[in-house]
């Protein structure tokens, strides 16, 4: 009978041990949509229903210049559906926001942040190939 031992690196870090992200180089994705890099738009999920666009603008502007904040709302109830899209002007700022804010507690809920995936409207009906 064969057996193997696997060891994985620990990803737990204290806030004082976090590296300086401003000097870090992130990969550049060359495609651009509406004059912004493709990977500069992020999606924030699991937001409390009481979240506002102004609050998201204030919180995420600490990571860089923001072009647009779009909080998705239920049309009939006029309240947040719990997710938003934030368009940064720089791809590096978007990556910094993802690495810093992903899986953080916000008003008792853990928020998840990822790069937004482009939809049909972003490519204006052209095929992706």
Automatic annotation (TrEMBL):
InterPro entries in the cross-refs: Nucleotide-bd_a/b_plait_sf, RBD_domain_sf, RNA-binding_reg, RRM_dom, RRM_euk-type
CDD domains for the chain: RRM_SF
Cleavable signal peptide: none
Pfam families hit by this protein: RRM_1 (PF00076)
Keywords, comma-separated and alphabetical: RNA-binding
Domain of life: Eukaryota
Domain spans labelled RRM: 40-118
PROSITE patterns: RRM
PANTHER family: GEO13361P1-RELATED, HETEROGENEOUS NUCLEAR RIBONUCLEOPROTEIN A0
Protein name as annotated: Cold-inducible RNA-binding protein
Organism expressing this protein natively: Camelina sativa
Lineage of producing organism: Eukaryota, Viridiplantae, Streptophyta, Embryophyta, Tracheophyta
């Amino acid at each position: 009978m064969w057996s193997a031992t696997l060891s994985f690196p620990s990803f737990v870090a204290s806030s004082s041990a976090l590296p300086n992200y401003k000097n870090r180089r992130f990969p550049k994705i060359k495609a651009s949509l509406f004059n912004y890099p493709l990977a500069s738009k992020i999606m924030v999920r699991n937001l409390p229903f009481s979240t506002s666009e102004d609050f998201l603008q204030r919180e995420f502007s600490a990571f860089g210049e923001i072009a647009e904040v779009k909080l998705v709302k239920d049309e009939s109830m006029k309240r947040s559906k719990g997710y938003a899209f934030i368009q940064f002007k720089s791809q590096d700022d978007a990556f910094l926001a993802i690495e810093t804010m992903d899986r953080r507690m916000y008003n008792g809920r853990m928020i998840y942040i990822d790069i937004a995936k482009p939809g049909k409207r972003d490519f204006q009906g052209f095929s992706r190939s």
